[in-house]
Amino acid sequence: MHQIAILASAVVDQIAAGEVVERPASVVKELVENALDADARFIEIVIEDGGRSRIRVADDGFGMRREDALLAMRRHATSKIRDASDLVGVSSFGFRGEALPAIASVSEMEIETSANGGGGTLVRAEGGEIIEVRDAARRTGTTVTVSRLFYNSPSRQRFLRSARSEWRAIADLIASTAILRRSVRVLVSHEGREVMNLPAAPSVRARVAALWGAQFADRLVDVDDVRGEVHVTGLVERPSDVGTAARRIHVVVNGRAIRDGGMVRAAEAAYRSTIPAGTRPSVLLDITVPADAVDVNVHPAKVEVRFRDRWLVERAVESAVRRALGSPRSAASIGVPAFWAVPKIAFSPVDVEVLQGPEDASPLLGGSVTAVDIVMPERNREEAIPVPPLRQLRHTYIMFEREDGVVFIDQHSAHERVLYERFMHALEHGDAASQRLLFPLTLHVGPQEGDAFEEHREMFERLGYEIEGFGGHTLLVQSVPAPHPRFDAERCLRESLDALTGSRLPGTASRHEKLAATVACKAAIKAGDSMSDGEMRSLFSALARTVLPAHDVHGRSTVVHLPWDEIERRFGRR
């Protein structure tokens, strides 16, 4: 007896079905993508029992002639490619020619299609075998109905989840596809009830609003950035709103929705120092790369791709999201926050003081230190910053008036952001300002704090500390940083060492980021501290020149904008 045998075609079809058809959502994905490849402008989807009993997808695409409909039921039959060279840069969703026969092999399937709107064709199949072919009257387009999924594969059927779980997977898949193809109208019914009616949308934001509500869409920040040959667009969640609602993830590469944890992690990395550890943002990104830089033929269901240079694409994604988070729109607000966007500033020229960057005196930052010291390369050091009349409220908030509303700045959070970016620059370049003490400080610390100091000794020195061991767990401090005149060096060092011990540090940041965030938090002015006019102007100018001015290192907002419309509505004037 031979040990090796050729599998029967029915077994081959079911193996292929196992690769392509994991659950009802997989069926919906393949059928909807076929409709989109047929240039459909309207797709109707009907789901029963979470897709386990019945799935129906109808479209107004170009349809098929009878001979093509019969060929489509055979494995490796496709209209998308002709030879191997077509796989490079293939832009259609489907191209393997496996979906229809794979689905038909584990279900009862009916295809009704017409290519000219006159005479159509109906094809019925059970378990992969065609049992009926006849004429049918149908307008141009195709309707595919799949019933009794996995009826002939009980082991697969037992692994299906509840109807509710399967429906949630289908709904997520439809939402992702609707965002991808915004020009297509999508109508979805579940258990006889209309659950989605999505007209064609002019933008991603409009489609997101139609899917998940305008309130969710308003929490998203636009992404649009080019780095080399990689173009990244889309929407990401404002840091101050992360964790307040369900998380949404949607990644597209060259017009194809994919699953890619690496791209999501790259986007999340851009949120460093803007959100608390453990929280994860919603991310909806569209990535465009040269066709020969990505291989889409690596997964039977086409949900994964392979990049020629993954590191380059991930860095482009991180950079694009980071730049978006530095935009005025990323600030927590009711309305449009743009107080540092010079072209949009609308103050009376008589009341505005303009600070010029390199020449700005910065009393809050101390002595000869200027606001430009914390500027990152993305910002223009020569950019003029119009500073309006500022007022301190409750020794905690800085307030100023605009033509479109009132803006509040949290003085501690804002100063924390300024110092964090300055300290990060110092850790990377070792050029922090330092002040020699006339009488050295002697600090007695515990074993854990002593270990934390030894672990971070070099980085403390880069920040401007000069510290020597003085036997046991005693530290002798000779020099300290000089971030601002009221800086309490001893208290800052003690609290920083205390915060650096144990498991209180977030696990996602680098050691540099952890130390810079910790020291910035301890060194920043506090709520309750009185500020002079010069200090407030200095802080305003310095914050405007940071890379991420809208958020402190804990993810809290530094700026909140309250428009006059909202104020007048509260007073009943609107």
Overall description:
By secondary structure, the protein is an alpha+beta fold. It contains 16 helices and 25 strands. Helix content is 31%, strand content 25%. The protein has an 8-stranded mixed sheet with strand order 5-4-3-6-2-1-7-8. It has a 5-stranded mixed sheet with strand order 9-10-13-11-12, with helices on both faces. Strands 16-25-21-20-19 form a 5-stranded mixed sheet. A hairpin with a 5-residue loop joins β1 (42-48) and β2 (54-59). The longest helix has 19 residues, at 411-429.
Which key terms come to mind for this protein?
single chain; 574 residues; alpha+beta; Heat Shock Protein 90; Ribosomal Protein S5, domain 2; formyl-coa transferase, domain 3; 4 domains; 8-stranded mixed beta sheet; 5-stranded mixed beta sheet; 16 helices; 31% helix; elongated
Mean pLDDT: 80
Q: Largest sheet, described in full?
A: 8 strands, mixed
Q: What sort of overall outline do the alpha carbons produce when their principal axes are compared? A: elongated
CATH topology of the largest domain: Heat Shock Protein 90
CATH architecture of the largest domain: 2-Layer Sandwich
Number of strands: 25
Quaternary structure annotation: single chain
What percent of residues adopt helix (DSSP H or I)?
25-40%
Strand content: 15-25%
**Would you identify the regions where 5 or more consecutive residues have pLDDT less than 50?**
334-352, 356-363, 365-381, 503-507
Q: Strands of the biggest beta sheet: in what spatial order?
A: 5-4-3-6-2-1-7-8
Q: Note the gap between the termini.
A: 88 Å
How many independent structural domains? 4
Number of helices: 16
Structural class: alpha+beta
The CATH homologous superfamily of the largest domain corresponds to Histidine kinase-like ATPase, C-terminal domain
Name the CATH class of the largest domain. Answer: Alpha Beta
Instruction: Report the C-alpha radius of gyration, rounded.
Output: 30 Å
